[in-house]
Amino acid sequence: MTNLLTAANLKAGIKVLKVSKPAWGNDFHDTLYIELKELKANGLDEQWWQKIVYKLWDWKAIRPLSRATILHEGLKSLPQLRAEYNAILKVTDKREPRLETVSWDILSGLYTVASSIKKTKYPSPVFGSKLCHFILPKVFPVIDREMVGVSGEYREYWINCKEQWMTCTVKQELIMQLQRAMKVQATSDYPWASKIVELCKIGAKR
């Protein structure tokens, strides 16, 4: 397996993001991750879900459905979503896991429930990956059509992302490279692994 997590691919991914999504490149969503942590301070409750639906809309994860539809379907699934989230925290001793510390078996239940909220004729892993990323940014890399590309099931994508990160020998160098590209000092909870894998995959396609 060729490891895509290189300085060159990260540089290319950062450039793509800054050119095509300039607003994203200001802090590489650092502000968003701070907000996401605050939103779930009381767990995955109804107030949290109402705010997250707008985030999903902004990230183009809902179309062609409406916000109202996703809000309604999500409220029905919220008890299951909360149960799966709490089950993960129970395994990790109430600490949010990192990509290095979990297996897909631990995460699969949350992804399954998250994906089931968006009911379309042709299911895609995009919605599930983005919702799970909003819940646990450090362990759910994003997949989408525009930037990363969608190919196959999210499970295979996730396993590949973890393998890429685990076999990367220049993790700290890449973290420092991304930090230099940011306009702010990243929060201590910044999801370095997920974001670096995403950016390197974007860069490798160019």
Helices and strands in order:
Elements: H1 7-20, H2 30-39, H3 46-58, H4 67-91, H5 104-116, H6 125-135, H7 154-167, H8 171-181, H9 192-205
How would you characterize the overall build of this protein?
This protein starts with 6 loop residues before the first helix and ends with a helix. It has helices at 7-20, 30-39, 46-58, 67-91, 104-116, 125-135, 154-167, 171-181, 192-205. The chain has one domain. α1 packs across α9 and α4 (67-91) runs antiparallel to α5. With 206 residues, the protein is mostly helical. The model has no long low-confidence stretch (mean pLDDT 91). It contains 9 helices and no strands. 61% of the residues lie in helices and 0% in strands.
What does this entry show, briefly?
With 206 residues, this protein is mainly α. Helices cover 61% and strands 0% of the residues. It has helices at 7-20, 30-39, 46-58, 67-91, 104-116, 125-135, 154-167, 171-181, 192-205.
